[in-house]
Amino acid sequence: MTDKMSVSREMFNDVMVPNYNPAAMIPVKGEGSRLWDQEGREYIDFAGGIAVNCLGHCHPAMVKAIQEQSQKLWHLSNVFTNEPAIRLAKKLTDATFADRVYFANSGAEANEAALKLARRWALEEHGEHKKQIIAFSKGFHGRTFFTVTVGGQPAYSDGFGPKPGAVEHVPYNDLEALKSLISDNTCAVMMEPLQGEGGVITPDADFVKGVRELCDQHNALLIFDEVQTGFGRTGSLYAYQQLGVTPDILASAKSLGGGFPIGAMLTTDAIAQHLKPGTHGSTYGGNPLACAVAEAVFDVVNTDDVLAGVKHREALVKEHLQRINDKYHVFDEIRGKGMLIGAALNEKFEGRARDFLQAGNAEGVMVLVAGPNVVRFTPSLIIPETDIVEGMKRFEQAVAKVAG
């Protein structure tokens, strides 16, 4: 057995493409909502791998699932099907509006499949004129060229040459703007039922219902990107279930695998028929290892106890953030739903979200940003209350330092 190479943060700069600038420390171990770095320093994890680690780190159900499946089958390719994939698809369709599931490896891939399916449906059902895709400014749908074009953030999509065509954007929560753009040439409207990367923006209830009605009027598909909001993150299995609106296609990932890479696109029988054999595929999508882990995550998350617990934790986190703000006056608004919470900075601290993230790291608490003006919290759905209290104590120390 060869000795493991010793690794330092400096090595990252020598061997990695420089598109990331990670923290100075390297986490090496996690348990529940706590992490430890190479030096043995402990952190409370309010970041959750960017809304991925929905059961924290090394949850026993996930460890058991991966251990058992790793001794049976890892990969087959889609020349064959497998039991974990079929079981997971059955559980997902039983719990949602969907009849059919397509498995991928990430949120971007699930969204890519959703967009390709919408275009194929429109072409075959209506003709070449019906190709327009409408999405929302400050949206985020992944980093493939198609999904990053549909995402409404030019900073992510510019600089790579000609973009896929017939993609247009309107402001989120602006129904009149959508009404003026949508037509019978619109193939699909794609939206997050709560914008994540764009600043943790909650939609107005009338806006979501209005989007659905406009899609129905113009025979366009409604695609919900639930990569971040899905799988218990907002207190129901999927966010659409609390909005009184049902999409035609839904993309899921992040929490779906609890930390193991997997994505899924969910849709109805009628729409699914347009992805016939050969029209789309994925080498690793639906592999037995990923599906076995995701099934274990599903069995834990899709319970009344866990989903009700998310809403309880939301109230607790918001209460602590409000208390901190009453003392230091750094936030303009505490917003979001479930375990997807944003603390929007006021004018005095505008553009300084990353300062709070870095100060948090120094105090032993991990948080995220959602743009330059919002500190984002996406912890485990089952984070113990004692960890919320301790994490908020550390975050308050970070806020005190930034606030001076």
Automatic annotation (TrEMBL):
Gene3D superfamilies: Aspartate Aminotransferase, domain 1 (3.90.1150.10), Type I PLP-dependent aspartate aminotransferase-like (Major domain) (3.40.640.10). The keyword Transferase applies. This is Acetylornithine aminotransferase. It catalyses: N(2)-acetyl-L-ornithine + 2-oxoglutarate = N-acetyl-L-glutamate 5-semialdehyde + L-glutamate. Homodimer. Keywords: Amino-acid biosynthesis, Aminotransferase, Arginine biosynthesis, Cytoplasm, Pyridoxal phosphate, Transferase. Pathway: Amino-acid biosynthesis; L-arginine biosynthesis; N(2)-acetyl-L-ornithine from L-glutamate: step 4/4. It is found in: Cytoplasm. One of its GO terms (cellular component) is cytoplasm. It holds the Pfam family Aminotran_3. N(2)-acetyl-L-ornithine binds at residues 143, 282. It comes from Idiomarina tyrosinivorans. InterPro entries: Ac/SucOrn_transaminase_bac, AcOrn/SuccOrn_fam, Aminotrans_3, Aminotrans_3_PPA_site, Class-III_PLP-dep_AT, PyrdxlP-dep_Trfase, PyrdxlP-dep_Trfase_major, PyrdxlP-dep_Trfase_small. The modification N6-(pyridoxal phosphate)lysine is found at residue 254. GO terms for molecular function: identical protein binding; N2-acetyl-L-ornithine:2-oxoglutarate 5-aminotransferase activity; pyridoxal phosphate binding. May also have succinyldiaminopimelate aminotransferase activity, thus carrying out the corresponding step in lysine biosynthesis.
